[in-house]
Amino acid sequence: MKDFVYQMPVKVYFGKNSVKRYLKDELKHYGKNIMLAYGQESIKRNGIYDEVIEVLGECGKNIIDFPGISANPTYEKVLDGIKLYKENNVDLILAIGGGSVIDCCKVICSGTDINEDIWEAQLEKGVIPENMGNFAVILTLSGAGAEMDCLGAVTYEKRHEKKTLTGPYAKFVIEDPNYIMTVPLKVFMPGVFDSLTHCMETYFGKTTNVSDLLNEGLMKDIIYNMRELIHGNDSLEVRSNLMWDSSLVQTFLFNVGKPGDFQAHKIENALGAYSHGTHGQQLAVIQPAYYRAVYKGDISKFARFSRVIMEIHDKDSEENIALKGIEALEKLIKEAQLSTTFTELGYELTEDIARTVSQTCEISNTGPRELTREEIYELLLRCK
């Protein structure tokens, strides 16, 4: 067990009608100007926007609308948000959405109290602002777990770079499972797989300790409820479990005392700057290929994953059991109707982009085995 300091400052209100039950009391702690940040028009069609507006009206708040945050938020959108925040003396951003909206708002908040380029400040100078803006979350799409951490991924389109910047933690989070019931399965399922990848990438980091045993329980619950969806049980209970699962992952409780191995995420982030694809869906393409490339570096851990998580109890060699676990993961991905190649996703991965991604993505040295850049290039071509 490595040394660590652990703190989780995020307050979560979970349950039906949570906006009406809790939002008004939380808003008492903030000034008049509330910035509503969201993606497209779905929250207006399903009534969530009107429900939030009603509460804000009862509290006498001044509303500043900030719509149009894309599925892969851009740095240009972040800069627009910082400008709007400053011009309107915003007291709190309400991020109404999923991981993309939340990430965008975190990075906006990181730049509200400085007068320099935050991309350059954080990524080139290594300077994290001491003072940041305030934001809170009303979760309408679960999976990323972004509501629980202080990290935001954004794409700088002009540079073809997708990077993670540091922002504040949410002041509070409202999770009403009713809000995710209207999300189509084809939109919801990639987020479910994203949650599972966060668990797996933590699990396969070097060392084994109590964090891994907790992680196993969470992975089993995600897969159980994922299969319930696959088999047609699209109930409030199932989605509630998956909503809370995704938040639990990003409390980083399962990272305590050990490193994670987020190589697949690093590859996907670098590729995402070109493809602008759905994060969880692209991970579903990359993750099995990555595990096939590295499993021999920790056969015993992959064999344990096979037995405990994928419930494979064959009498066979450790290596074959490990491989069967990866095969079971691939089968689960297909059953969830997630694409298994970039071609299926409708994205043409060229050799030039594969080469650029392999040369620019971060390399993980805390997993089963460190990949070379040539191996990453070959891995991506196998995913075409």
Strand and helix order: EHEHHEHEHHEEEEHHHHHHHHHH
> Which structural class matches the secondary elements?
alpha/beta
Percent range of helical residues: 40-55%
Please tally the helical runs, counting DSSP H or I stretches of 4 or more residues: 16
The top level CATH class name of the largest domain: Mainly Alpha
Strand order, main sheet: write it out. Answer: 1-8-5-4-2-3
- Relevant CATH superfamily of the largest domain: Dehydroquinate synthase-like - alpha domain
Defining traits:
alpha/beta, globular, six-stranded parallel β-sheet, Rossmann fold, 384 residues, single chain, Dehydroquinate synthase-like, alpha domain, two-stranded antiparallel sheet
How would you describe this protein?
The chain is an alpha/beta fold and 384 residues long. It has 2 domains: 12-179, Rossmann fold, CATH 3.40.50; 184-382, Dehydroquinate synthase-like - alpha domain (Dehydroquinate synthase-like, alpha domain, Up-down Bundle). The chain has helices at 18-27, 42-45, 48-58, 75-87, 99-110, 118-124, 185-203, 210-230, 236-249, 263-275, 279-294, 299-308, 318-335, 342-345, 351-360, 373-382, and strands at 12-14, 33-38, 62-66, 92-97, 135-139, 151-156, 161-166, 173-175. A 6-stranded parallel beta sheet has the order 1-8-5-4-2-3, with helices on both faces. α12 crosses α13 (318-335). The longest helix is centred in the middle third of the chain and has 21 residues, at 210-230. The protein is globular. Its EC number is 1.1.1.-. Keywords: Oxidoreductase.
